[in-house]
Amino acid sequence: MNKRIPLLVGGVLLLAAGAVGTLRVLSAESPSQVPTVTVPAPQGMAYADQVTDPAREPIPVDHAELIPMTVYLTPTCGCCSNWIEHIEQFGFEVTLEYRVDLTMVKEGFAVRPELSSCHTAVVNGYIVEGHVPGDVVRQFLAEAPPVRGLTVPGMPVGSPGMEVGGRVDPFDVLTFTSTGRTEVYSRHGRS
Q1: Rounded to two decimals, what is the model's pTM?
Q2: Count of CB atoms within 10 A of residue 186's CB?
Q3: Using CA atoms, how far apart are residues 129 and 149, in angstroms rounded to an integer?
Q4: Do residues 125 and 62 both lie within one domain?
Q5: Residues 118 and 130 placed together within one structural domain of the fold
Q6: Are 121 and 170 members of one domain?
Q7: pLDDT, tens digit, 9 for 90 and up, residues 105-138
């Protein structure tokens, strides 16, 4: 019973932090200095009434400058942090937007529940949902097709950020449109 209390208290504090927009993070290294991390509340999101899928300006694969990307994630997701480390290795400069509940983010960006994963990124006007490999994102941005974005639905083992030893379960990267149409963009984890 006592082992469950810290988790419950932590969960309540996390929910309260999301509601007010600020979370204080305690560091074991320096408990006297308590940094403040801004965790925007979900109510502040502003979405366009019409989501469109225009082609964007291509970003060549050999583009040398850092490419800005915003990633929406929950404050407690470890695999999201692992994916962010992965994606930064492919030339992305990541800005983090923490949300306690990502439902509004996903709905606002036309990510249907069957296409969703644990985090949502925005880059060059495209949505990158879930554990999409960085090289695939770079190739996609170079092609710049008229779709809403890319997704790896769920959280397949072996996808970037979801590594478990050498195991790689088969998974597909899909393109998707705002109307819900999907196509396989690339296949992974198959012999």
Answers
A1: 0.73
A2: 17
A3: 8
A4: yes
A5: yes
A6: yes
A7: 999 999 999 999 999 999 999 999 999 999 999 9
